[in-house]
Amino acid sequence: MGLFNRKAQKNEAAANAVMAEHEKETSPAETPIVGTPARGLSPSGQHQGALVEEKLPVTWLALTLGAISSIGGFMFGYESGQISGFLAMTDFLDRFGQNGAFTPVRQGTIVALLCAGTLVGCLASGIICDKIGRRWTISSSAFFYIIGVIIETTSDRQWVQFAMGRFTAGLGIGALSTSVPMYQSESVPKAIRGPVVSSYQLLITLGIWTAYMVNYGTSAAYTNSAQWRIPNGLSALWALILGISILAMPESPRYAYRIGRVDEARTNMARLNGVDPFSPLIDAEIAEIEEKLAAERAGGDHPWYEIFTGPRMLYRTILGMVLQAGQQLTGANFFFYYGTTIFKSTGIQNSYITSIILGSVNVGATIAGLWIVKNCGRRKALMIGAAWMCGCFLVYSFVGRFALDATNPMATPNAGKVLIVFTCLFIVAFATTWGPLVWAVVGELYPARYRAPCMALATASNWLLNFLISFFTTFITNKINYFYGLVFAGCTFALFWIVYFFMIETKDRSLEEIDTMYVLGVDPRKSANWDPKMLGEEGTSGLNTDGLYLKKGGMDIKKTETSGAGLMVHDETRFPDNPRDKEVPVSTA
Predict the structure, then answer these.
(1) Which of 32, 297, 335, 356 falls 20 to 30 Å from 255 in CA-CA distance?
(2) Secondary structure letter of residue 400 according to DSSP
(3) Measured at the alpha carbon of residue 308, what is the angle toward residues 532 and 312, in degrees to the nearest 5?
(4) Residues 286 and 261 sit within 8 Å (Cβ to Cβ)
C-alpha cells in the first residue's frame, strides 16, 4: 500500500501541474465548470480529464489487475490446447476410444462440449455480473471451472463423464470470456485499455503453448493415466490462482458507482490512475459516469430489443456478431484443436514438437499483435490478415490434396514441410490481426447503454461457431480431407469484403466519435479520413447515443439541450411520427 500511495502522490502532482498549465492556456469563457466534463473541451477537442490522463504514468495496480484477470484467457487456452495432445495419448485412447481409436462422433463430442458449455456460460454471465459484481463473477466462475476439471480427471473408462466434465468446465470459461474483458475495460485507465483487453487473447495463446509443453513432457515420461491426468489436473491450479488473487483487486469503479457505492468507486478509480480521489481527473471521470446514468434515467426504460431497433443498432449488432463469428471462421482453431492429429499425417515422427512450434509462433505473433492494436489501423490490419490467411489456406489445401502422399507421407517430405511452413504463416497472420483485434473492435462498436447485451450476443456467436467447427471437423476431414481448408479460404475471402464495406476505422477515436460515425452512416471506405470538425463547434458532444432520448422501440432519436439548438433535432422528414403514437407527446430540441 505504501508503494501505491507514493505513486499516487507523484501522479497527483503531475496531474495538478498539467491542469495548471492547461488553465493558463484557457480563457475563463472556455474553462468548464468542474464536474461537467462532457461540455469541458480543450482547444483540441479533448476533455480536461483526458488531457491529464494521457500524461500520467501507468500504475502497477492497473497492470496487475489486467494481468491477473487475463488468467481467465490462459485457462481457456490451456483447456483448448491440451485436448489436441490427449487425443494422441496411448492411455487416453485405450480408456475412452474404441479399439484404440476415436469415432468421429465420439471425438467431436469430447472436443465440442467445452464450446457448448462456454456458449451457455457466456449468455448467463451478463446477468450474474450485474447481480454480484465483476470481481465475484470472475472468482466464482474460476472455482466453478474446477468442478469440471474434477469430473474430467476422475473419469476412468466412461468417455461421457470426461465429455460432461468439459461441458461443466466450459460454463466457467464462458462466463470468464464476458466478465474478464468487461472488468478490464471498466477498470483500467484509457491509455492502456486497448492493449489490456487484447491481452486476454495473448493469455489464450500462452495457455495453448503451455498445454503443448506439458503434454509433450507427460506423454514422454509416462505410459499410464498420468499422461493426461497430470496436465488435466494442472488446470485447477490456474483457476485457483485466478479465483483467489482477483479478490485482492479493486471492484470495477463503474459497477460500484452504478449500484450506489460512490466512495468506493472514487477510491478505486484513484488507485488505478495513481492520483488523489478528489483530483480533477477523478472528478471528471465521476461526472462523466453520472452524466451517462442521468441520460439513461431520463430516457426511461430501454428493453433488450432496442439492440436491434435503436439508432443504427441492428447494423452494429449484426456486424459485431459477424466479426466474432469470423474470428472462428478464419479456421485458427482447426489447427489448435486438431494440430497433433493433423501433422501425424505429414509423416513427422513427433507431432507434439510441431504443436509446440505452432504454439510458440502463436504467442510471439500475438505480442506483435498488441502493438498493432495500439498503432495500426483496424480496417487495414483485418483486411490484410484475411487476405493473408486466405492465401495460406489455398496453399495448404492444394498441397495437402495433390502433393502429399496420404498413404505414405514419408515419401513426400517436402510437401509435409510446406504444410508446416504455411500453417506457421497462417498463425502469424491470425495472431497479429484477427486474434487480438476482434476483441478490441467489438468493444468499440456499441454505446454504453447497449454494450453489455450486444457484447454477450457477439461473444455467443463466437462460441457457437467454435462449437460447430470443433464438432464437425472430424466428419468433414474424413470426407474431403485437406480440401476442408477451402472452406476457411472462402470464409476469409468473404471477411475481407465485409470489413471493407461495413466496418469503419476506429483507431485513435473516442467512443463518442465512433458512435457518431455509425449513427451518421459514415461510409466505412472513407471513414479513416472523417473529421469530427465536420459537426461544427459542438463536435461529437452534440451527438452521443448515450445522451439521446429514444421513442418507443428506439426507432427515432432526439436530444434535448439546455440551451440553443443541439446537433440532434427531430427530423419529421426522416423519422415521421407514427399516427398510432400521436397521443404520446413528443418534445424536440
Answers:
(1) 32
(2) I
(3) 20
(4) no
Give me the amino acid identity at 337: Y
- Euclidean distance between CA atoms 494 and 492, whole angstroms: 5
8 A C-beta contact, residue 214 and residue 234:
yes
> Residue 471: what residue type?
F
What Rg value do the Cα atoms of the chain yield, rounded?
A: 26
Contacts of residue 480, Cβ cutoff 8 Å, sequence gap at least 6: none
Using alpha carbons, select from 184, 445, 195 the residue that is nearest to residue 310.
Answer: 445
Task: Give the number of C-alpha atoms closer than 13 A to the C-alpha of residue 215, restricted to the C-beta side.
Answer: 32
Q: Which three cell numbers stand for residue 274?
A: 495513481
- Residue 462 in contact with residue 324, Cβ under 8 Å? yes
C-alpha cell at 75: 485457462
Evaluate whether 153 touches 232 at the Cβ level (below 8 Å): yes
CA distance 305 to 582: 22
Helix, strand, coil % in the chain, rounded to nearest 5: 75, 0, 25
* C-alpha pair distances (Å), 356 with each of 343, 347, 361, 474: 12, 17, 9, 22
Cβ proximity of 346 and 461 under 8 Å: no
Residue owning grid cell 441492428: 314
Place of cell 469503479: 253
Locus of grid cell 499516487: 8
For 66-223, strand residue ranges (E) read: none
Q: Using one digit for the tens of pLDDT, what is the confidence trace for 565-589?
A: 333 434 444 444 444 444 434 333 3
Pure H helices in 224-344 = 226-245, 253-258, 262-273, 280-298, 306-309, 313-329, 332-344
Mean pLDDT across the stretch 347-361?
Answer: 75
Q: Which of 183, 205, 312, 302 is nearest to 249 (CA)?
A: 183
In 3D space, the residue among 325, 323, 316 whose CA is nearest the CA of residue 462 turns out to be 325
Q: Distance between CA 16 and CA 31 in Å, rounded?
A: 15
CA dihedral sign of residues 274, 175, 473, 336: positive
* CA–CA distance, 519 with 543 (Å, rounded to integer): 9
CA distance 371 to 56: 20
Task: Kindly report, residue by residue over 205-234, the tens digit of the pLDDT.
Answer: 899 899 989 998 998 899 999 999 999 999
115 contacts 463 by C-beta, under 8 angstroms: yes
- Residue 342: pLDDT band with limits 50, 70, 90: low
Q: Which residues contact 289 (CB under 8 A, 6 or more apart)?
A: 253, 254, 257, 258, 265
> What are the start-end ranges of the H helices in 299-447?
306-309, 313-329, 332-344, 351-375, 378-398, 413-432, 434-445
| Helices and strands, counts by H and E, the chain | 23, 2
Exposure pattern of 106-130 as b/e (b: 16+ CB <10 Å)?
A: bbbbbbbbbbbbbbbbbbbbbebbe
List, as one string, the DSSP characters of 548-584.
-EE-GGG-SEE---SSS--S----TTTSPPPGGGTTS
How do 549-550 and 557-558 pair as beta strands?
antiparallel
Helix (H, G, I), strand (E, B) or coil at 41: strand
CA-based nearest residue to 87, from 71, 70, 104: 104
